[in-house]
Amino acid sequence: MSQTQRQYFGTDGIRGLFGGPVINENFAARLGHAAARFAKRGRVLIGRDTRESGWILQQAIAAGLAAEGMEPVVLGIVPTPALAMAVVAEHATLGIMITASHNPASDNGIKFFNGNGLKLSDAQELEIEGNLPGEAEGRATLARLADREDGAEVLWARAEGLRPYLSKMASILPVRALEGWPIVLDTANGATCITSPHVLATLGAKLTALGGEPNGRNINAGVGSEHPQQLAARVRETGARLGIAHDGDGDRCILCDEHGGILDGDEILAILALHALGRGSLAAGTLVATMQSNLGLDAAIRNAGGRVVRSGIGDRYVAEKMRETGATLGGESSGHIICSDISSAGDGLLASLKVIEVMLATGKPLSQLRHGLKKFPLATKNLRVREKIPFARLPQLTAAIAALEKQLDPDGRVLVRYSGTEAKLRLLVEGPTDAAVTAGIESLESAARIGLEVED
């Protein structure tokens, strides 16, 4: 089922400005009704990140579920991967996570997991949309909500909701394996502010914290995986072994080596896959990456005796391709890393622990391990647009894409797409030289500005 057939769901759930036409209390109540009609029976676990709007949406979704006879169970603030694991551990029918991931606090979103801790398919999301009741039913449901307290307070998850996750993560490495390791940890003022420090401290790490004081309005604000500059500076200041940065809901990971160099998701995937290939343990000899990952990743894995299989953009498409190919490792350059032999969901903490496992096994620092990936020159540009006009109505842009593809073939590629979660046009050019990709990005941007209203 193609994404264009869905009205509300994008590449990672439903997302938008809180209080806007979609992400609001009434729509959340209606979505609760629709999800219940899709699932039909059972318990539904609901988690959220630290945004102050999360409490309101949580209550509204729970009310819609309950109105249809479902049993909503509110976990409170949990990382997305912890919710996915709890759904399986508690034999729930669905999991609902209220988060806008790496977006600013003004946004929020809603994404779903099935009883196996996997994100729903396009067809299932379309079915939920088809079950949405009208706005009047949403208002009636909200009117029945009783004793609605102030939702601005940050309330962390009940212990039993986190226990399976904390136990699993702490078991990745040997007891006290990180004794005395100085590590800088940036939790983006988000949902991992409790879980990641707990696990790393349990393993013996000496932590320096960034982004660990959420107030409902500062999630991702200058911190986290989208803003690793502070992380790099603090690693250099403290002499840490590495730095770890999550996004607001904890399903991403960006690392920093001991010199302050930033490692993206492609470098993390290369470290994990090359180590597994060397030990003969990369399932199906296959790493799954998206169309956005650097071509150097393919070359590195191929030279080590494995293969890279490409999926659509979005971690749920990565997971689907992993199941198709028998792979257990996959991810995105953004830092979504899935180790499906341990967890069904992308998990920033798990990814960082697996990289540390390689550091322990090899005795090498991150600055050496990252050399396994030689990236091809690549340039990207994100243009904020007022309207996502179909490419068929943008002849200058489509002509520029075709000309650039012909010019770069076979030593490069062009990727132009609208973001599934934001009002942005994403441009990517990869090629043989820095000059070629820079010129390519400039040509695409110029063509895009002819037909699109770009907000600078």
Describe this protein's structure.
With 456 residues, the protein is an alpha/beta fold. It folds into three domains: 156 residues, Alpha-D-Glucose-1,6-Bisphosphate, subunit A, domain 3 (Alpha-D-Glucose-1,6-Bisphosphate, Chain A, domain 3); 205 residues, 3-Layer(aba) Sandwich (Alpha-D-Glucose-1,6-Bisphosphate, Chain A, domain 3); 74 residues, TATA-Binding Protein. It has 15 helices and 17 strands. A five-stranded mixed sheet has the order 1-5-4-2-3, with helices on both faces. Strands 7-6-8-9-10 form a five-stranded mixed sheet, with helices on both faces. Strands 12-11-13-14 form a four-stranded mixed sheet. A hairpin with an 8-residue loop joins strand 4 and strand 5. It is globular. The two termini are 34 Å apart. About 2% of the residues have low confidence.
Features:
alpha/beta, Alpha-D-Glucose-1,6-Bisphosphate, Chain A, domain 3, TATA-Binding Protein, five-stranded mixed beta sheet, 15 helices, single chain, 3 domains, 456 residues
